[in-house]
Specification:
α6 crosses α9. A hairpin with a 5-residue loop joins β1 and β2. This protein is 60% helix and 4% strand. It is mostly helical. It has two domains: 279 residues, Fic-like fold (Orthogonal Bundle); 60 residues, Winged helix-like DNA-binding domain superfamily/Winged helix DNA-binding domain (Arc Repressor Mutant, subunit A), CATH 1.10.10.10.
């Protein structure tokens, strides 16, 4: 909660790269609903693909793997599970389902955090329980050397720290100390630094990131796996986590490397969502529907350029064609002439 303590002072400025990421994510979020209302069969395929990638990647980051031939069966079927690895992958899938189905209705609480840990831990004795022994983060080298990369909170202090973390996490959103997405990522960083469980902290942190993104109506994680994107950038993930955890105990750490990394992941998810949707949406009229939804989103006058900005990946010629068709139907009418002419919806 040292990061959230920093943010509770309501910093007057944020790094410029952070502001750029937030602007890009905000624009992508604006397009989100336009895509989601199109081609349900496309979204269903993306959801299933993301579910597999999330369950497999988040566990694989922590060294938990299952046979490739068993992935589909473990995630979507109800087979007898062979070992603890399969239990943990299945449990992660169940946690994902819970978040995707209930989203904003799941409270950010210690109970929720413990429940997530219980679900992803399989049949182990301390599932859902805070650690009872020190669990420092150790880096191991190929030559056998080891070093303590980060000294986590002691078992004795963990309950106190977790209580404060949840309290500050909820207050930061309610009181808007900073942009709520920054607050969510700060919570994530503090959780990883506290390291409340003996094992499984990384996986729980990624579930919490997905959950808190739902609070902010950032639901792209339903269609593109945050976990797989983090795994694809695993080295940078660990680098920024180490950078931002230095001096965390004294509250003099720099949280922005990790915050910016996660913002990059969210932005990348939106970019991939749009790319995958456009490649998969082969149904006739898919792009036409996107243009029409963009027009419907305007309450006042709009131009071809306004709609073009909302319909990234759709050609200007196609947008003009849809305008012409809608004009013939009497759905829209121009207020002037020329490329910059404004249009309005009729009726």
């Amino acid at each position: 909660m040292m990061t959230l303590r920093q943010l509770s002072k309501k910093p007057s400025s944020i790094p410029s790269i952070t502001a750029w990421y937030l602007a890009d994510i905000g624009e992508a979020k604006g397009m989100q609903n336009l895509f989601i209302k199109q081609s349900p069969h496309v979204l269903k395929a993306l959801r299933e693909h993301a579910l597999i990638e999330s369950a497999v990647s988040s566990n694989r980051i922590e060294g938990v793997e299952i046979e490739k031939s068993r992935i589909g069966t473990v995630i979507f079927g109800k087979p007898h599970l062979r070992d603890r690895n399969e239990e943990e992958v299945r449990g992660y899938r169940e946690a994902l389902n819970l978040i995707h189905e209930n989203g904003k209705d799941i409270k950010l609480s210690e109970k929720t955090i413990r429940d997530f840990h219980r679900m992803i831990s399989g049949e182990i004795w301390d599932a859902g329980k805070y650690k009872d022994k020190d669990s420092n983060i150790i880096q191991k080298y190929q030559d056998g050397r080891e070093r303590i990369r980060f000294k986590t909170i002691s078992p004795k202090e963990t309950p106190q720290y977790m209580k404060e973390l949840v309290k500050l996490g909820n207050e930061s959103i309610k009181e808007e100390w900073v942009h709520p997405l920054i607050s969510a990522i700060a919570f994530n960083l503090d959780f990883l630094c506290i390291h409340p469980f003996r094992d499984g902290n990384g996986r729980v942190s990624r579930l919490l990131l997905l959950l808190q993104s739902y609070y902010l109506d950032i639901i792209v994680g339903r269609y593109v796996s945050f976990e797989r994107l983090i795994e694809d950038n695993k080295e940078r993930y660990y680098e920024t986590l180490e950078e931002s955890s230095k001096n965390w105990h004294s509250g003099k750490h720099d949280p922005w490397p990790y915050i910016n990394f996660i913002l990059y992941i969210v932005k990348s998810a939106y970019k991939e969502f749009q790319d995958r949707f456009e490649k998969t949406a082969t149904a006739k009229g898919a792009k036409t529907g996107i243009i029409i939804k963009s027009i419907q989103s305007y309450k006042g006058p709009f131009t071809v350029s306004d709609i073009e900005r909302l319909c990234s990946g759709v050609s200007r010629d196609m947008i003009k064609k849809v305008f012409t068709d809608l004009k013939k139907k009497g759905d829209i009418k121009p207020l002037g002439r020329g490329p910059g002419a404004q249009w309005v919806k009729k009726g």
